[in-house]
Amino acid sequence: MISVAAFAATKSETAPDKAAIEFEKQLGISGDNAGFYTAMCRAVLLARLYPGDKNSEGPYVECRYLVIGDVRIHCATGRASTQGKTIEVEPSKKAIQLPYPDRELERINKTVNAILS
């Protein structure tokens, strides 16, 4: 199993988590593509969790965003936006069970649940 927990909630929301980067280096993923790889792995998992498309009513993944109606959640940072402006969404306390620990993925999951409820 590959960890996709390279982004942590820190001063800079896009600051990579040191342990995750070290793990990626062990897998042979290093340099500038490490964070990109992590975000794309997260997007792949989100696409499996939310397999809809533009024509469905539910969430779906489009490039590096999880889209719910007019709200877009970035797969790397977990930030929600609408029409290009960042919005604050109070994350739900309930979320589906994730296959592995990932702080950003958990945040995205809880944000999705808050929007859908």
Summarize the entry for a quick read.
The protein has 117 residues and is α+β, with helices and mostly antiparallel strands.
Low-confidence stretches: 1-14
- The level of helicity is 25-40%
The number of helical segments is 3
Give the SSE string.
HHEEEEEH
Reported for the largest beta sheet, the result is:
5 strands, antiparallel
**Strand fraction:** 5-15%
In terms of structural class, how would the helical and strand content be classed? alpha+beta
Rg: 14 Å
Give the rounded overall mean pLDDT.
76
Shape: globular
Amino- and carboxy-terminal Cα gap? 31 Å
Spatial ordering of strands, largest sheet: 1-2-3-4-5
Care to count the β-strands?
5
Could you please describe the fold and organization of this structure?
The chain is α+β, with helices and mostly antiparallel strands and 117 residues long. It is 34% helix and 15% strand. It is built from three helices and five strands. It has helices at 18-26, 33-49, 103-116; strands spanning 60-62, 65-68, 71-74, 80-82, 85-87. It has a five-stranded antiparallel sheet, with helices on one face. The chain is globular and about 40 Å long.
